[in-house]
Design brief:
alpha+beta, about 290 residues, seven-stranded mixed sheet
């Protein structure tokens, strides 16, 4: 028996296809899309069983369900598709970081650390989003424009319980507050931790769809967390510790670089170690 000839192009085709399928599964891991895919897989198995046992009525019904599912998938998977396209865009051409100057980064981190510590002690909820590469203009438009210099006093006044702009997120572009009371997309992930509320879901949502950084202060517990790349990391209530963590996160990718396929694969591989609720368990306080 003569073995088929396998060219290098065939091997490359198989590797790229496997990588694409693996990347898609990682993107939808922990979302409703994974449950829908499992349901579709079950339908395919039942359809094959009905065909094998010549159950043609059942086979026709399952065929119709699969056709309807094919039409509904783009609608149901809209959040996942949007997130995937946004991540691919981040790996391509990007502009310079909005927060790039070292002195500006240090000043911003110090201000945010001080404001977060005060808000935590006062049990005032807050979510602050810092723009990086991806533009946040769409989310700025959903709130009230402020265009003010970032100061701790300004942030505290915006999130004061009686302030008309306290409900929503503050978006920071560079060293200025662009807008307040902004609406953010909620993450599709299921959060099992009872400490996680709507602010945490919003922080995960914006960091999943963009490369922004989000600082969250819980109104119920006063806990402080930083969200980046769809991951949450809890912080202590010390202004210096918060500022240091923010500085590390904002300085992690100072110069815009175009990612290669291998860089993107490493990024996807590193996300395997994130639990389904978006928390890096190794960094949570006991």
């Amino acid at each position: 028996m003569k073995l088929p000839h396998i060219a290098l192009a065939d091997i490359a085709d198989i590797i790229l296809t496997a990588y694409f399928v693996y990347a898609v599964l990682l993107l939808i891991r922990g979302t409703r899309a994974m449950q829908i895919l499992q349901g579709l897989a079950l339908l395919l198995v039942l359809r094959a069983g009905a065909q094998y046992f010549h159950l043609w009525t059942v086979f026709s019904l399952l065929n119709a369900l699969l056709i309807v599912s094919g039409v509904a998938i783009p609608v149901v998977f809209q959040p996942e598709l949007r997130r995937a396209l946004a991540q691919l865009g981040r790996a391509g051409f990007q502009e310079a970081h909005s927060v790039s100057n070292r002195e500006s980064v240090e000043r911003l981190c110090a201000v945010l650390g001080t404001a977060a510590a005060v808000l935590s002690r006062s049990a005032i909820g807050a979510i602050i989003v810092v723009e990086r590469n991806a533009s946040l203009d769409d989310y700025v438009e959903s709130g009230t424009r402020v265009d003010a210099l970032v100061t701790a006093e300004m942030l505290l006044s915006l999130f004061a319980p009686r302030s008309p702009l306290h409900d929503g997120a503050v978006v920071i572009k560079g060293d200025r507050i662009a807008a307040a009371s902004c609406f953010l997309p909620l993450s599709e992930r299921v959060l099992f931790d009872r400490r996680m509320g709507t602010r945490h879901r919003a922080a995960l949502g914006i960091t999943e769809q963009t490369d922004a950084l989000a600082l969250i202060v819980s109104e119920e517990t006063g806990a402080i967390a930083i969200a980046l790349d769809g991951r949450l990391e809890e912080q202590s209530a010390s202004p210096q510790t918060i500022a240091a963590s923010l500085k590390r996160a904002l300085s992690a990718r100072r110069a815009p670089e175009r990612q290669t396929v291998f860089d993107y694969a490493r990024t996807l591989w590193s996300r395997i170690h994130v639990s389904p609720n978006g928390l890096d368990k190794t960094k949570l306080r006991p």
